Amino acid sequence: MHGKIISWKNMVILDTNAILRYILQDNQTMADEVEQQLFDDVCFIPVEVVAEIVYVLSKVYGLKRDVIAQTLTDLSDLDNIKIAQKPVVLHALGVYATKALDFVDCLLIGYANENGHTIFTFDKKLQKFLN
Question: Can you tell me the distance from the alpha carbon of 111 to that of 114, in angstroms, rounded to the nearest whole number?
């Protein structure tokens, strides 16, 4: 972190659109602005934004699950990026890459496995992966 003291109060929250421009490099000016932001400040990505990014990359751009998972895992490794519930999100991305589950269900599996939470669900497909 180049000697910076991390303060949760001073983080810049990146929204879905900003992260998509950075990942996709489809608008170079915007992608460059996001990259500069990543160099200048500690940036925070909420779980909700991760879920929306997964949805957009899958449904709008048609990227494969494993490519989405690897891309977001690589993003999480950048020094100035902090992801909410990072162990849960990374676990969810691992599940998402290999299982035909919605990403939110993968997040629930992540919460169960990483935080020891019990998930109450009537979804039989999800129950199969929780047991």
Answer: 5
In the sheet that holds 43-45, the strands lie side by side as: 12-13, 43-45, 81-83
| Number of CB atoms found within 10 A of residue 126's CB | 19
How far is Cα of residue 10 from the mean position of the Cα atoms in its chain?
20
- What is the distance between the alpha carbons of residues 105 and 99, in angstroms, rounded to a whole number? 10
In the block, which residue shows the tokens 């979804």?
123
Which pair of structure tokens corresponds to residue 58? Answer: 């899958």
Give me the residues paired with residue 85 across strands. Answer: none
Q: Does the predicted TM-score (pTM) go above 0.85? A: yes
CATH architecture of 9-130: 3-Layer(aba) Sandwich (3.40)
127: helix, coil or strand?
Answer: helix
Residues 6+ apart with CB under 8 A from 73: 90, 93
For the chain, the structural domain boundaries read 9-130
pLDDT tens for 23-57 read: 999 999 999 999 999 888 999 999 999 999 999 99
What six digits make up the tokens of 25?
């490099």
Measured over all CA atoms, what is the biggest interatomic distance in the chain, rounded to whole angstroms?
48
